[in-house]
Amino acid sequence: LLLLLSPWGASGVSCPPRCVCASNILSCSRAALSSVPAPLPRFAAVLDLSHNNVTRLRADWAPGRLAHLHALLLSHNGLSFVSTEAFAHVPHLRHLDLSSNRLRALEENLFSDLAELEVLLLYNNEISSVDRTAFENLARLRKLYLGQNRIARFPLELLRDGTRLPQLALLDLSANRLRSLPVGDLQALPAWLRDRLYLHGNPLACDCPLFQLVARGRRRRLSAVMDFQEELRCLLPAAPAPVGILALAGRQPLNCSEAREAVLEGHLGDTVTLSCDTRLRGVRSRHWVTPGGERVLEEGGNGSAALLANGSLQLRALRPEDAGTYACWVAGPLLNETLYVELLVHNFTLHGPHDTLNTAYTTLVGCILSVVLVLIYLYLTPCRCCCCCRAAAAAAEKPPAPRDDSINSSVLSATPNH
């Protein structure tokens, strides 16, 4: 009977050797395996192969389709090769752990079969190159861990247009070999991703945009900055050792200052002006960077954005895509300054003063109706005292109920038999 009730007995598949099986979970961790055990039951939902010696994951590791598998753990295996067709039989995988292996490159369309993947762990490998199509078709990916690798170039193409990984909310690039960051492009990222970008432990070159990026995270108390302040360091040209990025404030030779932020709201079709109120004197040049990463350098500009003579940026006929963080970069004789303006665009329009008149008229009508209802309640509601007196008189004239009624009432009020 127990064999028939368990999924193993019902399918006629025994638990693979050196594995522990419980319901739809297969735990084959620390079993000294050099390959994926076979056969694997089709109802398996979690497969743990961590801490083994599976160095190559070929396309035929799962001979049949594992439609129920949603978690695959392959960490600590010395894995150095993963076939581009390795995940064709697990289309509903949501959690994939390939951490602590020896992967050196992420090949073309490596994870494109995992359309439902949400968490991908690739930290503590030897990855130095990432193909721009490696994460193609991962529309549901929310967390990507690439820390402790050998990545020397920031993979901005994964994030720039927001269509390749539209739901990505956490990107860990810590402890890699990044020397520079496209700070202007990072500021244009959506807030939910920009605030969960981990960059500590990289040999970054010191500059003021980098300082302002980190200082902005400290002001917002972001965990990516607050939890790793000691590891957020950079290299100065003449310094013998890395210095803390947050220690660059007022320090020579950069003499960086924190960027200031403002929030501005607008509505569809409006014209708004974003001011660049710098405290610097003798400004030599200034330019704006839009949320899309485009620079507005010349007075007059083109399209809907125009740079005014006083350094402000004017946006005409606001659209939903105009929302985001705008940066004003100001170059002074001694130091530079950056000001950020967060523009919120509401998805409705304001049509002018007659809207105010309509609102006032509606309010007046509501007040009049309220007064009329109160008067009706006070003067047209029957007197409760008269009703009470009539009810008392009727009760006095009513003959006493027979004794059987008390028995019936006690039966009706009895507690049901559960």
TrEMBL record:
Spell out the residue ranges making up region: Disordered.
399-418
What cellular component GO annotations does this protein have? plasma membrane
Q: Which residues cross the membrane?
A: 360-380
Q: Which residues form the Ig-like domain?
A: 269-340
Compositionally biased region (Polar residues): 407-418
Tell me if Membrane is a UniProt keyword of this record: yes
Q: Which keywords annotate this record?
A: Disulfide bond, Immunoglobulin domain, Leucine-rich repeat, Membrane, Repeat, Signal, Transmembrane, Transmembrane helix
Q: What is this protein called?
A: AMGO1 protein
Q: Which organism was this protein described from?
A: Glareola pratincola
